[in-house]
Amino acid sequence: MSGSLERKHGSEDDEGHPTGTSDDYHDTDVFGREDNATIKYKTLSWQMCSVLMIAEIVSNGMLSLPAALAVVGIVPGLLLIAFLGIFALYTSLVLVDFKLRHPEVHNMGDAGMIMGGPVLREILSAGTVIFAVFATGSQLLAGQIALSTLSDNKLCLMIYTGIFAVPTFLVSLFRTLDHLSLLSVLACIGILAAGIVGMAGAGAISSPQPIETAKPSDFYHAFLAITNPVFSYAGHFMFFILISEMSQPKDAKKAAWTLQIFATTVYCVFAAVMYVYLGDGIASPAFSSLPSHWSKAAYGIALPNFLIAGSLYAHTAAKLFFVRLFRRPARSRHLHHHTLLGWAVWAALVLLMNAAAFVLAVGVPIFAYLVSIAASLFASWYTYGIAGAFWLFDAWHDHAGWVAYRQRWGMCLLNCATFLAGFFICVAGMYISIKLIVDAYSSGAVGEPFSC
C-alpha cells in the first residue's frame, strides 16, 4: 500500500471510459489488498453505497424546497430541481471515472494532490473537513428542531442539541462504512416515510391553494430561492471516500444513478405537493407549516435520517485525517488491525469533529448563515464545478493535451461550462450569504452565543 500520491493516469477505451483489471485497481488503491487485514474497509456493495449516498444527501435540505417554489413559482422551481438533479448525475459519473483512473484517491484532497500538488491538496482537504463539520452541525440543528417540536419546546434549545449530539457521536464511531450502511437503510426509509406523512398532512388540512406557474423576482430573492435546490444535492465531497470502501468500485456508477433518480424524484414530488396544498405561506423547513400532530409525526419519523446523516458527515471528516495518518506502510497496522493507538486516534478524531459541530451550532449566532457560506465555497465546487476540472485534467494527460480537446470538443465545452457553473454558484452564493448576514444584524435577528 503506497503512502504517496503519484500523478498516475489510467488508460481508457475508445469511448473515454477507464480500463484496467480489478487486480490492477486493488494493487494501487488507498487500502491496498486486505487479505490479511482484521479490519476490512472494501466491503460495500453498490446497493449499500447507494443507500449511504441517499442517506447523506436526501435529508433536511429537502424540507426547504417547497419554500423555493413559493418564491419563483412551481414551473421554474420544478424545472430547476430536475435540471440540477440531471447535472448532479453527470458530475457524479465524472467523479466516478476520475476515481477509477486514480485508485489511490481517497478524498478530494488526494484528487487535489494529483491535479495541483500539495497546496491544492491542503485546500481541498480543508474544504472537505470544514463542510463536513458544518453539515454535521446543520443536522444537529435539524435534530434540535425535531426534538423541540416533539416535546412542545419544554427545554432549552441548546439542551436538545446536546441530547441529539450524543447518539450522533456514538454512531460516528463505526470504523468502516458497511456498518453505517445498515443504519442508513433506516435513514432512507425514515426520510421517505416522513415526506409521505408530511404530504398526507398537507392534503388533510387544506385544499389545493391558488398557485402561480412563475413569479417575477429580483436576482437576490431568486438566487436565494435557487440556493435551496442547489445545495440539496450537495454530497459529492463524500463520493471518493464511499467508493474507496466498495468491494467493486467499477459498480459505483450504478449507485450514482440510483441516488440521483431517487433524489430528483422525491424532491420534485415533495416540493410540488407541499407547495400546492400549503401555498405561498409555506415555511422552511416545510414540516413546520403543518399542524402540531402532523408536524410531530413527520419530524419523529425523520429523526433517524437527521441522526445518521450527521454521523456520516462527522465520520467523513474523521476518516480523512485517520487515513492520511495511517495509510503509509509503516503505520498501516493501525488502519487494518485493532491497535490501541488506532482506536484511540479514531475515537479522538470522531469526538473532535462532533464537538466542533456542536460548539459551532450552539455557540455561533450566525451559524445557519455560515453553513450557507461553506456550501457556497465548497459544495458549489465539489458537487458541480470540480467535475469539469477532473475531466479536463484527465483528457489532457491521457490524450496528448490539446489534441484531446480538439477531438472531443463537445465534451470539452461541456466540462468548461461545468467548471464555470461551479464558479458562478460559488460567487453568487457568497454574495447572497454575506448579504443575509448583514441584513440579519441590521434587523437585530442575530441572537446570543450559547442561548436558548
Helix/strand layout:
Elements: H1 22-28, H2 46-57, H3 65-72, H4 74-101, H5 108-116, H6 118-150, H7 157-172, H8 177-205, H9 219-232, H10 239-244, H11 252-278, H12 292-326, H13 333-336, H14 340-363, H15 367-398, H16 402-407, H17 409-443
Tell me what the structure shows.
This protein is mainly α and 452 residues long. It has a single domain, classed as Orthogonal Bundle (Hydantoin permease), CATH 1.10.4160. The protein contains 17 helices and no strands. It starts with 21 loop residues before the first helix and ends in a 9-residue tail after the last helix. The chain crosses the membrane at residues 49-72, 78-98, 119-137, 157-174, 181-207, 219-243, 255-277, 297-318, 339-360, 366-393, 413-434. This is Amino acid transporter transmembrane domain-containing protein. It is a multi-pass membrane protein. Residues 43-432 form the Amino acid transporter transmembrane domain.
Please give the domain count.
1
| Sheet having the most strands | none
CATH architecture: Orthogonal Bundle
Which parts are unreliable, with pLDDT below 50 for 5 consecutive residues or more?
none
Q: State mean pLDDT (0 to 100 scale).
A: 88
Question: What is the H level of CATH, i.e. the homologous superfamily?
Answer: Hydantoin permease
Keywords: Membrane, Transmembrane, Transmembrane helix
Family: Belongs to the amino acid/polyamine transporter 2 family.
Protein name: Amino acid transporter transmembrane domain-containing protein
Organism: Cyphellophora europaea (strain CBS 101466) (Phialophora europaea)
